[in-house]
From TrEMBL:
Species of provenance: Streptomyces lucensis JCM 4490
Domain HTH araC/xylS-type, residue spans: 215-313
Biased amino acid composition, Basic and acidic residues: 313-326
Upper lineage: Bacteria, Bacillati, Actinomycetota, Actinomycetes, Kitasatosporales
A GO term, aspect molecular function: DNA-binding transcription factor activity
SMART domains: HTH_ARAC
Region (Disordered): 299-326
Protein name per the record: AraC family transcriptional regulator
Keywords: Transcription, Transcription regulation
């Protein structure tokens, strides 16, 4: 069981809170065990929209796999606004020091800054507050024009609805992209990201469409990307012909065939493994390549030619010879 603790501060924005809470509660319906807790320095907190919220004043016991989220609050400016109590700041620091993840939405980044968690790290916040956040916390690097940033288990998001993107990112990192996509569709939203690792996310880059047939096939590829997946099997899974699937898939994903989509997922996972010390050979085997040659070939392509970005429709030689083994 994973706990997600939301720290409610005065004038908390409802969507900053409700968006991530909905993501994690929806994820729990698909298998992962999430328990949501709401803590505050008082038993009742008034939201920015006027709705009073009840919270507990004692914190539950937390482990390193648990998550603490600070939603934002009404903040025309950060100066003169919400101040953390020393006890709450200590809680945030202690959870991070113990190996846990701490996240914020919108003005919640200011709370992380008050706790000293932004020093030496990348962060972001609502575009109207970025200049002030940078001035108030000069040891932080405020990143602009992104939905969220991640840096050493400190995750910050831009504002309001971007908390949903942040939560989907955390789900994908912990449980894989397929679960994040299922949750996004259940919530009837686009699964999108736009920051740091998210900019390179294969799944979220090619999930912003409304073709349910293609979504079902993407679910299968994402769940079994390391296995051979013949086109006929994918088409049968979708209940359409192979020709129809290829046409719909290419149109929905901006030019990718199912094979190139699977290759892109494999490459992304392999890069993650390599970044954590794996050899090229072991990473290739882990993601489903028979040997390291294909992985080396894909990695050697310029970024514009990587499978995740290649919008050409003509298959290369390898794709022609391997087309029956998606």
């Amino acid at each position: 069981m994973t706990r997600v603790v939301f720290v409610l501060l005065p004038e908390v924005h409802l969507l900053d809170l409700a968006g991530p809470a909905q993501v994690f509660s929806t994820a729990a319906a698909f298998g992962p065990s999430y328990t949501l807790d709401y803590v505050a320095e008082r038993e009742q907190v008034r939201s920015a929209q006027g709705l009073p919220l009840a919270a507990r004043t004692d914190w539950p016991a937390l482990g390193r796999d648990d998550l603490v989220v600070v939603p934002g609050w009404r903040a025309p400016a950060l100066r003169g606004g919400v101040r953390l109590s020393p006890a709450t700041a200590d809680r945030l620091r202690a959870h991070h020091a113990a190996g846990g993840t701490v996240a914020s939405v919108c003005a919640g980044a200011e709370a992380l800054g008050q706790a000293g968690l932004l020093d030496g790290r990348r962060c972001t916040t609502h575009h109207q507050l970025q200049d002030e956040l940078a001035a108030r916390h000069p040891r932080a690097t405020v990143v602009r024009d992104v939905l969220f940033t991640t840096d050493d288990r400190v995750v910050t998001s831009a504002g309001i609805a971007s908390g949903i993107d942040l939560a989907l990112h955390l789900l994908a990192a912990r449980h894989g992209p397929s679960l994040a996509a299922r949750v996004a569709r259940e919530m009837v939203i686009y699964a999108r990201r736009n920051g740091n690792e998210a900019q390179a996310s294969v799944m979220l880059r090619h999930r912003s469409h409304v073709d349910d047939t293609v979504h079902r096939v993407q679910d299968l590829i994402e769940a079994r990307y390391a296995e051979p997946l013949p086109l006929a099997r994918l088409a049968a899974h979708a209940g359409v012909s192979a020709r129809t699937l290829t046409r719909q898939f290419t149109r929905a994903t901006g030019g990718l065939t199912p094979l190139r989509y699977q290759q892109a997922l494999r490459l992304e996972r392999a890069e993650h493994l390599l970044g954590h010390g794996a050899t090229v050979e072991s990473a290739a085997r882990e993601v489903g390549f028979e040997d390291a040659r294909m992985l080396r070939r894909l990695r050697s392509r310029p970024p514009a030619q990587h499978p995740a970005n290649d919008h050409g429709t003509a298959p290369d030689r390898h794709e022609k010879t391997q087309a029956s083994y998606f």
